[in-house]
Amino acid sequence: MTDNGNGNEWLSLKEVDLRDMPSPKARASVWTTLYEEIALRLEQTNGMNALAFEFDSYRIANNGRNQARVHFNKDYCKKYIKTAVRKHPGGATLYVARGKDWYL
């Protein structure tokens, strides 16, 4: 460690791109990135379209749907997004669209 002259010690200090900083959200999980992607993309999508996320398995797609609901229900309300999961050979697709309460 290095003494910086003020009694504080650390191994190193460098400037990094803000995108390299971990999410400050206390409940950050493997699904936080999906939640953030949904929120960003739905803002830019017209209300007549949905997002389709491809997954390797139905179980993972369903977990993604459940976690997206948890995040949006906590941050907004229950009908903020609409979700569905469809199985297909080789995986599943998670569909997400704006819900009836999108603009609350």
Architecture overview:
The chain is α+β, with helices and mostly antiparallel strands. It has a domain at 49-104. The chain has 2 helices and 5 strands. The strands form 2 sheets. The protein has a 3-stranded antiparallel beta sheet, covered by helices on one side. A two-stranded antiparallel sheet has the order 1-2. A hairpin with a 2-residue loop joins strand 4 (81-88) and strand 5 (91-98).
Q: How would you briefly describe this protein structure?
A:
The protein has a domain at 49-104.
SSE pattern: EEHEHEE
Total DSSP E strands? 5
What summary fits the major beta sheet?
A: 3 strands, antiparallel
Taken as a percent bin, the fraction of beta residues is: 15-25%
Give the C-alpha Rg. Answer: 19 Å
Quick tags:
two-stranded antiparallel sheet, 3-stranded antiparallel sheet, 104 residues, 5 strands, alpha+beta
Annotate the secondary structure layout.
Blueprint: E1 2-3, E2 9-10, H1 32-44, E3 51-55, H2 58-75, E4 81-88, E5 91-98
Helix pairs in contact: 1-2
